[in-house]
Batch of 4 targets.
Target 1
Amino acid sequence: MIKGHLVLIGYWISFAIIHHVMATESFKLHSIKALGAMGHIYRLVYSVVASITLFLVLEKHFGTPIVSVPVPFGVAMIAGVPGLMVGLYIVRACLNKYFLKLSGVGIFNDNYQTPALETTGLHRYCRHPLYLGTLITIWSLLILFPDVRGFISCMSVTIYVLYGTGPEETKLMKQFGNDYVRYRERTPAIFPRFFFLFK
């Protein structure tokens, strides 16, 4: 059983390495050069690889033996259900807003334009609302269905998301320049300021 959980950790580490390497600017530039005339599809290739590797990790996750952790029913209902609803709402709102940019399928849209800096909607409260929605969703699911494999996956995703904001910020700074610097100065990265009102 412990071996299964260690293997799951290995899967998440492998996913993070692949995802991180493919997201680096140097790997992207080399890949675009290698693709030649097809270089414009790199984002789509990246999304396909990320989806396949994530599927493999999730397959391993659900194939790992369940070791339940007791959580009071009241806690699950009070924290888990509202959290899941909020998290899914944020994720859906983000995907509706810039799915074409994230997935790379925008290259097939004749009206597709290079995305501008997002500062409205959920982006008024944090610079990476999709990360926020993802974290709220997965931790709410863990509260509702508490087990060791879920904790491993939640921790893996959380560590990667918190680490991944660094390279993402560097890329956005390069892409949008001073506009992003000003946006960054007034807007938190992941957790909106009102998250800490009750501290």
Note: Residues 11 and 57 are 6 Å apart (CA to CA).
Target 2
Amino acid sequence: MQYGRGVSADPAAEQQSIARIQEGVFFTVPAALPRGRHNLTREQISGAQRERLLAAVTELLAAQGYREFGVGEIARHAGVSLGTFYACFESKDACIFAGYDRFIEVLLRRMQDVDVPVDDRPELAIALIRAYFETLQQDLVVARAYQVEIDALGPEARARRRDSLTLFAAYIRERTAPLELPWTAYIGVVYAARQLASDALDTAATPDLAALGADLQGWVVDLFRAR
């Protein structure tokens, strides 16, 4: 089991020093399970414990970096036992990647919720990029964990990032059809947005990610204008 500076002589103080996720954006931490007899099903209990673990690993990843905590810290931060952790996830990495998958799922859903007339493709494209930045801004803890710190997980993290950015690019192409642009144009927009957000998160405690959409607007509008 891996331990680092995540181990503290005062666990309560350590818990207080770790920034919390924003409830309801990417994760929703359930209330503590009731003691004694209750009417919750096994699936409800397992789902609640899994959600607590996902929020916990995200907070630890954002606050301490990948190498500075282990499974024991995740379980303690979530308020569950080690046995419960291993009933939900086979490893620390599996837990982190499950959190990352949720992160991408929510970002894509927010993009899907964008409602702009399909014939205004430049405005639609910038609205999709803006939805990405604004969703990140709503929970900087989650954004920092999965835009910056996850890179320490190595090749699998890079592969998942490529897959997710390809997914975003394909969605933008689908929404802006029948506009014909090279695939590199779509993927380039997504990579540019992702890198700008990552750099901002890596260099500032409270970056203004929503402003990045305005910075990109001229380029994106020109790229997606009718030809």
Note: Residues 1-9 have pLDDT under 50 and may be disordered.
Target 3
Amino acid sequence: MKVLLINPPSLNQISDAHPKIVETERGHYPPLGLLYIAGYLLKNSKHDVYVIDAQVDKLSYSQLGDRVREIKPDVVGITAMTFTLLDVLETVRLVKSISAYIKVVLGGPHVHIYPEETIQLPGVDFVVLGEGEITFAELLEVVDFPDRLGGLRGIVFRNNGSVTNTGPRPFIEDLDSLPYPARHLTNYKKYNSILAKRSLPTTTMFTSRGCPFVCKFCDRPHLGKTFRYRSALNVVDEMETCVRMGIQEFLIYDDTFTVNRQRVLDICDEIIRQKLDISWDARAHINTISEDMLDKMRDAGCTGIHYGVESGTERLLKLLNKGIKKQHVKEVFGWTKQRGIATLAYFMVGLPTETKEDIYETFRVIRELDPDYLHLTVFIPYPATQLYKEGLAQGIIKKDYWKEFAKEPRKDFTPPYWAEVFTKEELDLMIAEGYKSFYLRPKYLLKSFLGLKSISELRRKVKAGYSLISWQ
């Protein structure tokens, strides 16, 4: 059987909270979810497996169609996120126009939240719930036998006009048992990041799944709240495999890499033991960081840490269930900088009950922390999150926008902001002001210039800087 996994073009992404320059200049990351499935199939089945990343290859729908016709797949798998749903469905239509006999399977966070709505969309044959590797492989074995589908946990399908949902299966506990993502099935040398310190290529990695923290603005139900992690040797052996492919720069894409202190130290020790010449970034929670951990991470090639701070006021940090204090945030940023590790700070504006004074306090805190990179967005209450549920219950969110969009995706859809204090237009202006007041400071410009590591980094930053100056 020929199995084709597609990362669709990004031509119809619905408007979100990110300024366009953030999306267009950040680079391209590999579709790790699809590559994990591909790797699992290559090891555990005899199917012919293909991957098309239409984004990194910059394919039009016409060009994507040519590639699909050339491969002639029996089954097509696509990962669906809410913001990419329009392009996912355009890809589904394209595949079905080539052959109505191709089975189309959707997975990912969106379909896990809205399985019944997704299976009713035109052209969708199956939905895979939760983690997809094992379920998708088992589905391929019964995809042509309708009477056996009901015995497979973790799928949703139509059956004689009704919808059958077999329910989610348990999470994968032994993550070391999963093969590495099949990066070689993509044009992996094209992947890049504006944060990269070296020349191409760059890649992403997952070393764990599940986030134990309870922030009210975030939810990842398809991965769960239990922190499951890979062993240090398994993680570093994947890095070594990538190095042999010519990849030396990594973004560890875990929700929170630093949950288990000893595991972080073990990973760093293993990188040092294997003498890997690599650079890597990771996401970390403020409360999980210590100075000795930072020392070890630096020694193992860590060049950047991404911290979610979100707000500059204690009141709003408490409202968000962040569990952090401003003074400790300042200390952790200071420790990180002292070790020459770059910092990226995530912040939001337009939070529930937030005032203009709160926003300007956040901008002041941002300048005080002086991170190397700032990621500033307007708060959007995402589906299944606690704040979205509270907004509906309080009547601030007038209707279940996300569920309606899941049922009937349309190009004019605009995600709901928290329309309690500010209008969308006011918040967009605040975002523009926040970015420019941070990135266009003489102090920041001089620091960025003096910190350049390569000509390629200079080119990326000049391009992004020009876009910022031209924005609005």
Note: The CA atoms of residues 452 and 458 lie 6 Å apart.
Target 4
Amino acid sequence: MDIYQDALVKLAAILGLNIKKNDLNEKSIEEILHEAEVIKKDDEMLNMAIDNCVDSFHIADGKGIILRVNRAFENHTKRGRTAIEGKSVQDMVKAHLYQPSAVLIAIKEKRKVTMLQSGPDGEVIATASPVLDENSEVKLVVSNARFTSELKLLEKYYDIKEKKKKEELKIIGSNSPVMKKLLSLAAQVAISDSSVLIMGETGSGKSLLAKHIHEKSKRKNENFVEINCAAIPESLMESELFGYSSGAFTGAKKGGKPGLIELADKGTLFLDEIGDMPINLQAKLLQVLQNRSITRIGGEESVPVDIRLISATNMDLVDMIANGQFRKELYYRINVVPLFVPSLRERKEDIPVLIHTFLDKISNENDMTIDISEAALERLINYKWPGNVRELSNVIERLIVTNNSQLIELKDLPNNILLLTDESTEDIIVNRIIPLKEALEAVERELILSAYDAYGNSYKVAKALEISQSGASRKYIKYKKMQKPSNKL
């Protein structure tokens, strides 16, 4: 019996339990067994994790004797672990399972080593990390390895990311002198943390320019958080921007929620259509910019935020200040560096590049090969593009998905583009006499459909045509159902 009691006391000591022989009773034995069961479960979980690791996993002692390998190591070396564990690292090198050995260098130099190794399945990047004891001697060496072929996926990811950046730059447009000058200034501005206000018409590429500035800045590896102030309902905007604390209002998420400003910490906050921000929130935003901190709705704690602010608008903010719609102090805070994106009609040199960029991009997305005739290209270049780059993109997409011949020709272009071309062309051309009522309806139809092509929603259409939003929606539904109009009045 004493032998069993001695064994239990030793087991208790191994498990870290301070139990002496005289203390052994039913309760203490249960404690020992419970602790052993916990360790067993932890060991099973650890073994499961090691065996399901993607990397080849390898543990050796300070003398280079292999203690443990995982399933990935077995698969890559084509050897079972019983043929590997207990053998020395030198034996593995002689068997050409891997060479040279990062483990041997780590033992010799007592430092972490990362190097290229060759093996039966090809080259791997191996990292060996020594674990030192209290005397600074190597106790263990833990190493992992991943095949270089698997890293090609990462390389592909960065290639795609870089290609997307170049594509976005093309979509901004960079052939015209005015855009070359703008992009040069944007690159210069990107280096600093100064607030930038990008101005320009709807659809001219302001958000892409904001992203371009972020990608060129020292914050490029942090978040780029974009907020369209015109797209968020006023009732939700405050909670979206500033977040809220737990129990701030009925239905508030338990634990609260960080706002978009908070999520932009260390990165760039882009406020698109800032002219649409309610006047009361403009005051709160100004406070954030001044104090470099926010307070969530219903909260008391001030949360520091480090953001670079870029704003954009298609409105005349100076005029809005005069009308009491925009805060003067906020305007001066966001307008440290003003940038103006010219409309597409002011930089026709960019249109051919944009057209071919959209043709390639949208054709690839739809698994098609579409080209454009010289006549059609010329007409698109001379069109006024009231909706700018966004309208051009929408038109090219429509021409691609409705095309049956793999070539976009002049006859395929929308009626509003066939009728309205360059600046010297009259807005309305009368080639024959028709009843005034019919003519007015034809013009109204063209204006409504063209405006929806350019702006995409009834609010902006109503604003551009100076009619009510309900009227814009009603007329669009009416004319969409009707037969397409002829090219001439």
Note: The two ends are 112 Å apart (CA to CA).
